[in-house]
Specification:
This protein has a two-stranded antiparallel ribbon with strand order 1-2. Helix content is 70%, strand content 1%. The relative contact order is 0.13. With 303 residues, it is mainly α. The structure holds geranylgeranyl diphosphate.
């Protein structure tokens, strides 16, 4: 089975996440110094350095190393992906979007700094992400850097996060078909995870076949991320358990468990992990261990 053939017993996943996560945090801290004008620098640092699991940067680095690249080649891209993720959270929390008061255990950016500053902090992070990759990626051919920047760009705009967000907004309160739900999640959540993995493989020197294999792996874990999120929403509040496929769609947010039932959603999640692991089985098992464990981590996470 791919699941067991990809699992190295010697690999310490917790330690890997901690050590790589710490290096990412140091790089992020250095990327956004507290400089003039401090009003924007403080707001940026407040959200970017607020914690978070750092799944996207770690995926980027693991993918770079899988194809034989060095971590240093992927660090600026790993930071850029986290900057874009953070800016999308800042904007998603705004009163005109989800209107959330808390994020990563703290008041949201607009609650702490005001709506005007939060919008600008998001804009600055989006711009800085691309500048950072272009200016700080060393020892990688310019062709590969440009290819990775194009990939990153396409994950954000009208083929990426923005596309998912606009359809999510316009589907609120309406009946949502499974295909629409999948479109929203693929764009809102999976595209940036895909960019993290694919850009890592491009910057690490992966061949076209390797990069496309990693894209397939990323598409599986991207969707998995959201299916698991939806299952967690249900399992966290037991009063939701009575809801079954097709019900409550007009009054509540559509989720996989609501559209297909919780058992089928769990089965779908298992299929996605197996598919992701099958893509990794084409690579050296020891080098694939971090990505293998990351897929299982996304499947089994509790928050
Ligand atoms: C990107 C230009 C641009 C605009 C933003 C607001 C918006 C458009 C898109 C919304 C994107 C969004 C908030 C998607 C949800 C992604 C998601 C699954 C977030 C949770 O990710 P985790 O669990 O969070 O990795 P942490 O805090 O651990 O990083």
């Amino acid at each position: 089975k791919p699941q067991s053939s990809n699992t190295s017993p010697k690999f310490n996943f917790k330690e890997y996440m901690n050590t790589v996560g710490k290096r990412v945090n140091i790089a992020l801290d250095e990327a956004v110094p507290l400089k003039h004008p401090v009003q924007i620098a403080e707001a940026i640092r407040y959200s970017l350095l607020a914690g978070g699991k750092r799944v996207r940067p770690i995926l980027c680095i693991a993918s770079c190393e899988l194809v034989g690249g060095d971590e240093s080649s992927a660090i600026p891209m790993a930071c850029a992906v986290e900057m874009i993720h953070t800016m999308s959270l800042i904007h998603d929390d705004l009163p005109c979007m989800d209107n959330d008061d808390f994020r990563r255990g703290k008041p949201t950016n607009h609650k702490a700094y005001g709506e005007d500053t939060a919008i600008l902090a998001g804009d600055a992070l989006l711009s800085l992400a691309f500048e950072h990759v272009a200016a700080k990626t060393l020892n990688v051919s310019p062709d590969r850097v440009v290819q990775a920047i194009a990939e990153l760009g396409s994950s954000v705009g009208t083929e990426g996060l923005v596309a998912g967000q606009i359809l999510d907004i316009y589907s609120a309160g309406k009946h949502v078909a499974l295909s629409d739900l999948e479109y929203i999640h693929v764009h809102k959540t999976a595209k940036l995870l895909e960019a993290a993995v694919v850009c890592g493989a491009i910057l690490g020197g992966g061949s076209v076949i390797e990069v496309e294999r990693m894209r397939k792996y990323a598409r599986c874990i991207g969707l998995l991320f959201q299916v698991v999120d939806d299952i967690l929403d249900i399992t966290k509040s037991s009063d939701e358990l009575g809801k079954t496929a097709g019900k409550d769609l007009a009054t509540d947010k559509a989720t996989y468990p609501k559209l297909m039932g919780i058992d089928k959603a769990k089965k779908f999640a298992n299929e996605l992990v197996d598919q992701a692991l099958a893509e990794l089985s084409h690579f050296d098992a020891a080098k694939a261990a971090p990505l293998c464990y990351l897929a299982k981590y996304i499947a089994n996470r509790q928050n």
